[in-house]
Amino acid sequence: MNPEVIYWYDSAEQLPDDIMVLMYRDDGTGDDVFVGYRDSKWRDMEGMPTARPTSWAYMPKGPGK
């Protein structure tokens, strides 16, 4: 199996298209990495507005991809 490299983008420098992405934000809750997207606002995977993450990454392809 080949390891998949995840590249993190600084959300202050580059924004994702309107697709699901991994988001990172150290807010002290322990839930630092989560799934969400950005349309006109940052949103969690359920569509609820969330604070801007510090970084984001494209979703991994998964095993065997």
In short:
The protein has one domain. The protein is built from no helices and five strands.
Folded structure, characterized:
It is globular, with a radius of gyration of 12 Å. β3 (33-38) and β4 form a beta hairpin. The protein has one domain (9-58). It has strands at 9-10, 21-24, 33-38, 42-44, 55-58. It is an all-beta fold. It is built from no helices and 5 strands.
Describe the structure using short key phrases.
65 residues; five-stranded antiparallel sheet; globular; mainly beta; single chain; 5 strands
Strand tally: 5
CA radius of gyration is 12 Å
Spatial shape:
globular
Compute the number of structural domains.
1
Task: Give the oligomeric state.
Answer: single chain
Given helix and strand content, the structural type is mainly beta
Low-confidence stretches: none
**What's the tally of helices?**
0
Distance between the termini: 10 Å
Blueprint of the fold:
Blueprint: E1 9-10, E2 21-24, E3 33-38, E4 42-44, E5 55-58
